[in-house]
Design brief:
Bound molecules: zinc ion
Order of helices and strands: HHEEEEEEEHHHEEEHEHEHEEHHHHHH
Oligomer: single chain
Shape: elongated
Low-confidence stretches: 310-326, 419-424, 427-431
Strand content: 15-25%
Number of strands: 14
Distance between the termini: 105 Å
Number of helices: 14
Helix content: 40-55%
Length: 431
Protein backbone atom coordinates (compact mmCIF):
# COMPACT_ATOMS: atom_id res chain seq x y z
CA UNK A 1 0.00 0.00 0.00
CA UNK A 2 1.25 3.41 -0.91
CA UNK A 3 2.14 5.71 1.95
CA UNK A 4 -0.18 8.52 2.93
CA UNK A 5 2.84 10.82 3.47
CA UNK A 6 3.98 12.79 0.45
CA UNK A 7 7.61 12.64 1.65
CA UNK A 8 7.58 8.81 1.56
CA UNK A 9 5.96 8.86 -1.86
CA UNK A 10 8.74 11.05 -3.27
CA UNK A 11 11.42 8.82 -1.70
CA UNK A 12 9.75 5.73 -3.19
CA UNK A 13 9.74 7.39 -6.59
CA UNK A 14 13.50 8.10 -6.38
CA UNK A 15 14.33 4.44 -5.64
CA UNK A 16 14.73 3.89 -9.39
CA UNK A 17 17.60 6.43 -9.62
CA UNK A 18 20.58 4.38 -8.43
CA UNK A 19 23.14 7.07 -9.28
CA UNK A 20 21.79 9.47 -6.64
CA UNK A 21 23.04 9.14 -3.06
CA UNK A 22 20.60 8.68 -0.20
CA UNK A 23 21.54 12.08 1.19
CA UNK A 24 20.83 13.81 -2.12
CA UNK A 25 17.49 12.01 -2.37
CA UNK A 26 16.51 13.32 1.06
CA UNK A 27 17.48 16.83 0.09
CA UNK A 28 15.59 16.60 -3.21
CA UNK A 29 12.49 15.32 -1.40
CA UNK A 30 12.65 18.14 1.18
CA UNK A 31 13.12 20.75 -1.57
CA UNK A 32 10.21 19.36 -3.58
CA UNK A 33 7.88 19.48 -0.58
CA UNK A 34 8.91 23.02 0.20
CA UNK A 35 8.16 24.04 -3.41
CA UNK A 36 4.71 22.43 -3.11
CA UNK A 37 4.05 24.39 0.09
CA UNK A 38 5.11 27.63 -1.55
CA UNK A 39 3.13 26.84 -4.65
CA UNK A 40 -0.13 26.46 -2.75
CA UNK A 41 0.26 28.87 0.13
CA UNK A 42 2.81 31.45 -0.99
CA UNK A 43 0.50 34.43 -0.49
CA UNK A 44 -1.45 33.34 2.53
CA UNK A 45 1.05 31.83 4.93
CA UNK A 46 3.66 33.55 7.08
CA UNK A 47 6.87 33.96 5.02
CA UNK A 48 9.06 31.99 7.35
CA UNK A 49 6.94 28.89 7.49
CA UNK A 50 8.40 25.95 5.60
CA UNK A 51 6.40 22.92 4.57
CA UNK A 52 7.98 19.66 5.77
CA UNK A 53 5.40 17.05 4.84
CA UNK A 54 1.78 16.41 3.88
CA UNK A 55 -0.31 13.54 5.21
CA UNK A 56 -3.43 12.43 3.41
CA UNK A 57 -6.01 10.18 5.01
CA UNK A 58 -9.59 9.30 4.07
CA UNK A 59 -11.06 12.76 4.30
CA UNK A 60 -8.35 15.11 5.48
CA UNK A 61 -5.01 16.68 4.64
CA UNK A 62 -2.51 17.63 7.32
CA UNK A 63 0.23 20.06 6.27
CA UNK A 64 3.28 19.95 8.58
CA UNK A 65 5.14 23.23 8.86
CA UNK A 66 8.11 24.55 10.81
CA UNK A 67 8.62 28.17 11.64
CA UNK A 68 12.08 29.50 10.85
CA UNK A 69 11.87 32.88 12.56
CA UNK A 70 14.89 34.55 14.17
CA UNK A 71 12.96 37.00 16.30
CA UNK A 72 9.54 37.59 17.81
CA UNK A 73 7.68 40.25 19.76
CA UNK A 74 6.88 39.53 23.41
CA UNK A 75 3.08 39.83 23.76
CA UNK A 76 3.52 41.14 27.31
CA UNK A 77 6.06 43.96 27.02
CA UNK A 78 6.04 44.30 23.22
CA UNK A 79 9.83 44.19 22.94
CA UNK A 80 11.55 42.20 20.20
CA UNK A 81 13.48 39.18 21.34
CA UNK A 82 16.09 37.29 19.29
CA UNK A 83 16.76 34.83 22.07
CA UNK A 84 15.16 31.65 20.76
CA UNK A 85 14.72 28.70 23.10
CA UNK A 86 15.15 25.13 21.94
CA UNK A 87 11.56 24.18 22.63
CA UNK A 88 8.47 24.86 20.60
CA UNK A 89 4.73 24.43 20.72
CA UNK A 90 2.86 22.39 18.13
CA UNK A 91 -0.49 23.89 17.09
CA UNK A 92 -3.12 22.49 14.77
CA UNK A 93 -5.18 25.02 12.83
CA UNK A 94 -8.05 24.13 10.52
CA UNK A 95 -8.03 26.03 7.21
CA UNK A 96 -10.16 26.27 4.06
CA UNK A 97 -10.80 22.77 2.65
CA UNK A 98 -9.33 21.34 -0.54
CA UNK A 99 -11.52 19.21 -2.83
CA UNK A 100 -14.00 18.54 -0.05
CA UNK A 101 -11.24 17.34 2.29
CA UNK A 102 -10.67 18.96 5.66
CA UNK A 103 -7.36 20.83 5.82
CA UNK A 104 -5.24 21.20 8.96
CA UNK A 105 -1.95 22.98 9.34
CA UNK A 106 0.30 21.65 12.04
CA UNK A 107 2.87 24.27 12.94
CA UNK A 108 5.80 24.20 15.32
CA UNK A 109 5.76 27.64 16.90
CA UNK A 110 9.07 28.74 18.42
CA UNK A 111 9.51 29.69 22.03
CA UNK A 112 11.53 32.81 22.85
CA UNK A 113 13.04 34.19 26.04
CA UNK A 114 11.93 37.67 26.93
CA UNK A 115 15.06 39.67 27.70
CA UNK A 116 13.28 42.48 29.49
CA UNK A 117 14.07 42.00 33.20
CA UNK A 118 10.90 43.78 34.37
CA UNK A 119 8.63 41.69 32.12
CA UNK A 120 6.42 39.17 33.81
CA UNK A 121 6.99 36.65 31.01
CA UNK A 122 10.16 34.64 31.10
CA UNK A 123 9.39 32.91 27.82
CA UNK A 124 6.64 33.31 25.22
CA UNK A 125 5.41 31.55 22.11
CA UNK A 126 5.57 33.48 18.85
CA UNK A 127 2.20 34.37 17.33
CA UNK A 128 0.99 34.67 13.75
CA UNK A 129 -2.17 36.70 14.24
CA UNK A 130 -2.79 37.28 10.53
CA UNK A 131 -3.01 33.51 10.11
CA UNK A 132 -4.91 32.61 13.31
CA UNK A 133 -5.60 34.30 16.62
CA UNK A 134 -3.82 33.14 19.75
CA UNK A 135 -5.04 29.66 20.75
CA UNK A 136 -7.57 29.64 17.89
CA UNK A 137 -8.18 26.35 16.16
CA UNK A 138 -9.58 27.92 13.00
CA UNK A 139 -7.66 30.14 10.59
CA UNK A 140 -8.88 33.71 10.11
CA UNK A 141 -9.88 33.13 6.50
CA UNK A 142 -11.83 30.00 7.45
CA UNK A 143 -13.70 31.97 10.13
CA UNK A 144 -14.52 34.66 7.59
CA UNK A 145 -15.86 32.08 5.18
CA UNK A 146 -18.00 30.39 7.85
CA UNK A 147 -19.52 33.68 9.02
CA UNK A 148 -20.34 34.78 5.46
CA UNK A 149 -21.90 31.40 4.78
CA UNK A 150 -23.84 31.11 8.04
CA UNK A 151 -25.34 34.60 7.84
CA UNK A 152 -27.40 33.35 4.88
CA UNK A 153 -28.71 30.28 6.73
CA UNK A 154 -29.24 28.97 10.25
CA UNK A 155 -26.20 27.83 12.19
CA UNK A 156 -27.61 24.32 12.33
CA UNK A 157 -28.09 24.10 8.57
CA UNK A 158 -24.68 25.67 8.00
CA UNK A 159 -22.93 23.16 10.22
CA UNK A 160 -24.41 20.30 8.22
CA UNK A 161 -23.73 21.92 4.85
CA UNK A 162 -20.17 22.94 5.70
CA UNK A 163 -19.17 19.42 6.69
CA UNK A 164 -20.07 18.31 3.17
CA UNK A 165 -17.36 20.55 1.71
CA UNK A 166 -14.83 19.52 4.34
CA UNK A 167 -15.25 22.16 7.06
CA UNK A 168 -15.65 20.65 10.50
CA UNK A 169 -17.31 23.20 12.75
CA UNK A 170 -20.04 22.89 15.37
CA UNK A 171 -23.26 24.89 15.56
CA UNK A 172 -22.05 26.57 18.77
CA UNK A 173 -18.79 27.62 17.19
CA UNK A 174 -20.65 29.14 14.25
CA UNK A 175 -22.88 31.15 16.62
CA UNK A 176 -19.87 32.32 18.57
CA UNK A 177 -18.04 33.39 15.39
CA UNK A 178 -21.04 35.34 14.11
CA UNK A 179 -21.50 37.16 17.42
CA UNK A 180 -17.82 38.01 17.60
CA UNK A 181 -17.77 39.24 14.02
CA UNK A 182 -20.95 41.28 14.61
CA UNK A 183 -19.42 42.90 17.67
CA UNK A 184 -16.29 43.76 15.70
CA UNK A 185 -18.35 45.35 12.90
CA UNK A 186 -20.39 47.41 15.38
CA UNK A 187 -17.23 48.57 17.16
CA UNK A 188 -15.85 49.64 13.79
CA UNK A 189 -19.11 51.40 12.85
CA UNK A 190 -19.20 53.34 16.11
CA UNK A 191 -15.83 54.87 15.20
CA UNK A 192 -17.10 56.19 11.87
CA UNK A 193 -17.06 59.95 11.43
CA UNK A 194 -18.50 60.12 7.91
CA UNK A 195 -22.15 59.22 8.57
CA UNK A 196 -24.29 62.11 7.31
CA UNK A 197 -27.83 60.76 7.71
CA UNK A 198 -28.92 58.45 10.53
CA UNK A 199 -32.09 56.43 10.09
CA UNK A 200 -33.62 54.94 13.19
CA UNK A 201 -36.55 52.63 13.84
CA UNK A 202 -37.58 50.10 16.44
CA UNK A 203 -38.00 46.36 15.96
CA UNK A 204 -39.18 43.57 18.23
CA UNK A 205 -36.92 40.54 18.11
CA UNK A 206 -39.99 38.46 18.93
CA UNK A 207 -43.04 39.65 17.05
CA UNK A 208 -45.52 41.45 19.27
CA UNK A 209 -43.32 41.22 22.37
CA UNK A 210 -42.27 44.75 23.30
CA UNK A 211 -39.87 43.51 25.98
CA UNK A 212 -37.64 42.37 23.10
CA UNK A 213 -37.65 45.84 21.50
CA UNK A 214 -34.44 47.05 19.86
CA UNK A 215 -33.43 50.22 18.04
CA UNK A 216 -31.85 49.82 14.63
CA UNK A 217 -29.62 52.59 13.33
CA UNK A 218 -28.87 52.70 9.63
CA UNK A 219 -26.59 54.83 7.50
CA UNK A 220 -29.27 56.73 5.54
CA UNK A 221 -27.02 57.09 2.50
CA UNK A 222 -25.65 53.56 2.13
CA UNK A 223 -28.66 51.85 3.75
CA UNK A 224 -26.30 49.64 5.73
CA UNK A 225 -26.96 48.78 9.35
CA UNK A 226 -24.62 50.61 11.72
CA UNK A 227 -25.72 49.34 15.10
CA UNK A 228 -28.60 47.52 16.77
CA UNK A 229 -29.12 48.23 20.47
CA UNK A 230 -31.45 46.74 23.04
CA UNK A 231 -34.39 48.95 23.97
CA UNK A 232 -36.26 51.67 22.10
CA UNK A 233 -36.31 54.46 24.65
CA UNK A 234 -35.28 58.08 24.31
CA UNK A 235 -32.22 57.58 26.55
CA UNK A 236 -30.92 54.71 24.47
CA UNK A 237 -31.48 56.58 21.21
CA UNK A 238 -29.70 59.61 22.63
CA UNK A 239 -26.66 57.55 23.60
CA UNK A 240 -26.32 56.20 20.09
CA UNK A 241 -26.96 59.55 18.39
CA UNK A 242 -24.11 61.06 20.40
CA UNK A 243 -21.79 58.45 18.89
CA UNK A 244 -22.35 59.97 15.45
CA UNK A 245 -21.63 63.70 15.72
CA UNK A 246 -21.04 63.88 11.95
CA UNK A 247 -24.70 63.06 11.24
CA UNK A 248 -26.73 66.25 10.91
CA UNK A 249 -29.95 64.59 9.84
CA UNK A 250 -32.02 61.96 11.65
CA UNK A 251 -34.67 60.15 9.68
CA UNK A 252 -37.29 58.61 11.96
CA UNK A 253 -40.86 57.46 12.49
CA UNK A 254 -43.40 59.67 14.26
CA UNK A 255 -42.85 58.13 17.68
CA UNK A 256 -41.99 60.57 20.44
CA UNK A 257 -38.96 58.70 21.83
CA UNK A 258 -36.72 59.16 18.79
CA UNK A 259 -38.09 62.65 18.12
CA UNK A 260 -37.14 64.01 21.53
CA UNK A 261 -33.79 62.19 21.46
CA UNK A 262 -33.02 63.83 18.11
CA UNK A 263 -34.14 67.22 19.41
CA UNK A 264 -31.89 66.92 22.46
CA UNK A 265 -28.96 65.97 20.22
CA UNK A 266 -29.69 68.99 18.01
CA UNK A 267 -30.35 67.07 14.78
CA UNK A 268 -32.42 68.04 11.76
CA UNK A 269 -35.37 65.62 11.68
CA UNK A 270 -37.14 64.16 8.69
CA UNK A 271 -39.93 61.59 8.41
CA UNK A 272 -38.74 58.46 6.67
CA UNK A 273 -40.37 57.28 3.45
CA UNK A 274 -41.56 53.98 4.86
CA UNK A 275 -43.65 55.59 7.59
CA UNK A 276 -45.12 58.18 5.21
CA UNK A 277 -46.33 55.44 2.88
CA UNK A 278 -47.58 53.42 5.85
CA UNK A 279 -49.60 56.40 7.07
CA UNK A 280 -51.15 56.94 3.64
CA UNK A 281 -52.19 53.27 3.61
CA UNK A 282 -53.86 53.62 6.98
CA UNK A 283 -55.79 56.75 5.98
CA UNK A 284 -57.05 55.12 2.77
CA UNK A 285 -58.04 51.96 4.64
CA UNK A 286 -59.89 53.89 7.34
CA UNK A 287 -61.76 55.91 4.69
CA UNK A 288 -62.80 52.70 2.93
CA UNK A 289 -64.07 51.16 6.15
CA UNK A 290 -66.30 54.19 6.71
CA UNK A 291 -68.02 53.47 3.41
CA UNK A 292 -68.46 49.71 3.45
CA UNK A 293 -70.28 47.55 6.02
CA UNK A 294 -68.15 46.33 8.87
CA UNK A 295 -68.55 42.70 7.88
CA UNK A 296 -69.35 41.44 4.46
CA UNK A 297 -71.15 38.11 4.17
CA UNK A 298 -71.43 36.58 0.78
CA UNK A 299 -73.78 33.75 -0.07
CA UNK A 300 -72.21 30.67 -1.49
CA UNK A 301 -74.58 27.86 -2.37
CA UNK A 302 -76.58 27.16 0.76
CA UNK A 303 -74.03 28.79 3.03
CA UNK A 304 -72.35 32.04 3.96
CA UNK A 305 -68.78 33.24 3.75
CA UNK A 306 -67.49 36.22 5.71
CA UNK A 307 -65.26 38.35 3.49
CA UNK A 308 -63.85 40.88 5.94
CA UNK A 309 -62.16 39.46 8.95
CA UNK A 310 -63.07 42.07 11.50
CA UNK A 311 -61.37 39.97 14.17
CA UNK A 312 -58.09 41.35 12.85
CA UNK A 313 -59.16 44.93 13.43
CA UNK A 314 -58.23 46.78 16.55
CA UNK A 315 -61.72 48.24 17.07
CA UNK A 316 -63.23 44.84 17.86
CA UNK A 317 -63.17 43.67 21.43
CA UNK A 318 -60.69 40.80 21.56
CA UNK A 319 -63.08 38.67 23.59
CA UNK A 320 -65.46 38.51 20.64
CA UNK A 321 -62.90 37.37 18.13
CA UNK A 322 -63.91 34.67 15.76
CA UNK A 323 -61.48 31.79 15.77
CA UNK A 324 -62.10 30.93 12.13
CA UNK A 325 -61.28 33.03 9.12
CA UNK A 326 -64.72 32.63 7.64
CA UNK A 327 -68.16 31.59 8.71
CA UNK A 328 -70.05 29.05 6.64
CA UNK A 329 -73.69 28.37 7.51
CA UNK A 330 -75.42 25.50 5.78
CA UNK A 331 -79.19 25.25 5.60
CA UNK A 332 -82.08 27.68 5.26
CA UNK A 333 -81.32 31.17 6.49
CA UNK A 334 -84.44 33.10 5.63
CA UNK A 335 -87.79 31.65 6.52
CA UNK A 336 -91.24 33.11 6.67
CA UNK A 337 -92.52 33.66 10.22
CA UNK A 338 -95.08 30.79 10.16
CA UNK A 339 -92.55 28.49 8.53
CA UNK A 340 -90.22 29.22 11.44
CA UNK A 341 -92.93 28.46 14.00
CA UNK A 342 -93.74 25.19 12.26
CA UNK A 343 -90.12 24.12 12.42
CA UNK A 344 -89.93 24.99 16.11
CA UNK A 345 -93.02 22.86 16.72
CA UNK A 346 -91.74 19.89 14.69
CA UNK A 347 -88.35 19.99 16.38
CA UNK A 348 -90.09 20.18 19.75
CA UNK A 349 -87.79 22.95 20.92
CA UNK A 350 -87.97 24.26 24.45
CA UNK A 351 -88.73 27.96 24.87
CA UNK A 352 -85.05 28.67 25.41
CA UNK A 353 -84.01 26.69 22.34
CA UNK A 354 -86.72 28.35 20.26
CA UNK A 355 -85.53 31.78 21.34
CA UNK A 356 -81.96 30.96 20.34
CA UNK A 357 -83.09 29.60 16.97
CA UNK A 358 -85.23 32.66 16.21
CA UNK A 359 -82.50 35.08 17.16
CA UNK A 360 -79.93 33.20 15.10
CA UNK A 361 -82.18 33.24 12.03
CA UNK A 362 -82.92 36.94 12.50
CA UNK A 363 -79.22 37.78 12.80
CA UNK A 364 -78.44 35.86 9.63
CA UNK A 365 -81.25 37.61 7.80
CA UNK A 366 -80.05 41.05 8.89
CA UNK A 367 -76.48 40.11 8.09
CA UNK A 368 -77.55 39.14 4.59
CA UNK A 369 -79.14 42.53 4.14
CA UNK A 370 -75.70 44.04 4.72
CA UNK A 371 -76.05 45.42 8.23
CA UNK A 372 -73.06 45.86 10.50
CA UNK A 373 -72.75 43.82 13.65
CA UNK A 374 -73.25 46.93 15.79
CA UNK A 375 -76.43 47.84 13.89
CA UNK A 376 -77.84 44.31 14.27
CA UNK A 377 -77.08 44.40 17.99
CA UNK A 378 -78.94 47.68 18.31
CA UNK A 379 -82.02 46.44 16.44
CA UNK A 380 -82.23 43.22 18.42
CA UNK A 381 -81.38 44.93 21.73
CA UNK A 382 -78.40 42.70 22.43
CA UNK A 383 -74.65 43.20 22.70
CA UNK A 384 -72.25 42.93 19.79
CA UNK A 385 -70.69 39.96 21.51
CA UNK A 386 -74.08 38.17 21.57
CA UNK A 387 -74.50 38.80 17.84
CA UNK A 388 -71.06 37.36 17.29
CA UNK A 389 -71.78 34.30 19.40
CA UNK A 390 -75.13 33.56 17.79
CA UNK A 391 -73.62 33.91 14.34
CA UNK A 392 -70.60 31.83 15.24
CA UNK A 393 -72.82 29.04 16.53
CA UNK A 394 -75.36 29.41 13.71
CA UNK A 395 -74.28 26.30 11.75
CA UNK A 396 -74.64 24.17 14.88
CA UNK A 397 -77.93 25.76 15.95
CA UNK A 398 -79.53 25.27 12.56
CA UNK A 399 -78.19 21.76 12.16
CA UNK A 400 -79.60 20.76 15.56
CA UNK A 401 -83.07 21.93 14.56
CA UNK A 402 -82.81 20.13 11.23
CA UNK A 403 -81.76 16.92 12.97
CA UNK A 404 -84.68 17.14 15.36
CA UNK A 405 -87.12 17.65 12.50
CA UNK A 406 -85.60 14.61 10.75
CA UNK A 407 -86.10 12.61 13.95
CA UNK A 408 -89.71 13.68 14.08
CA UNK A 409 -90.36 12.53 10.52
CA UNK A 410 -88.65 9.20 11.14
CA UNK A 411 -90.87 8.66 14.14
CA UNK A 412 -93.90 9.73 12.11
CA UNK A 413 -93.06 7.30 9.26
CA UNK A 414 -92.62 4.43 11.68
CA UNK A 415 -96.02 5.10 13.18
CA UNK A 416 -97.56 5.26 9.73
CA UNK A 417 -95.97 1.90 8.92
CA UNK A 418 -97.48 0.37 12.04
CA UNK A 419 -100.89 1.62 10.98
CA UNK A 420 -101.27 3.61 14.17
CA UNK A 421 -103.35 6.72 14.50
CA UNK A 422 -101.65 9.58 12.85
CA UNK A 423 -104.51 11.95 12.41
CA UNK A 424 -103.53 14.00 15.43
CA UNK A 425 -100.06 14.49 14.09
CA UNK A 426 -101.12 15.40 10.59
CA UNK A 427 -103.51 17.89 12.08
CA UNK A 428 -100.71 19.34 14.03
CA UNK A 429 -98.49 19.68 10.99
CA UNK A 430 -101.19 21.40 8.98
CA UNK A 431 -102.02 23.68 11.87
ZN1 LIG B 1 8.32 40.59 27.70
Amino acid sequence: MESSLIGDRIMDFMEQYNSITAQTKKELAAGTIEIIGNFFYEFCMPNLWHLRNIKRSNNEFVFYWVSDTQQAVCPECKTVSQNRANTYLTRRIQDLPISGMTVYHEIKDNRYYCDTPECSSITFIEQFEEMAEKDARLSERLKDFIVRYAIEASSNASSKALIKIGIKVSRDTILRLIKKKGAAVVTQNLKRDDVKVLSVDDINLRKGNSSTACSVFIDGETHRVLVIVQGATEEIAQKVLKQFPSADIVSRDRGTAYASAATKCDKIQVADGFHLVQNIHKVVKDALYQEIPHDLFVREGEGWIRMVNSASEESVDTSVQDDGDCLVVMGPTTLAEDDLEKRIYLAELTDKQADKYKKTMKILELTESGLRTSEIAKRLSMTGQDVWNYRKNAPETIQNVENKIDEYYQYYEQRQYRQKTIAKHTDAIIK
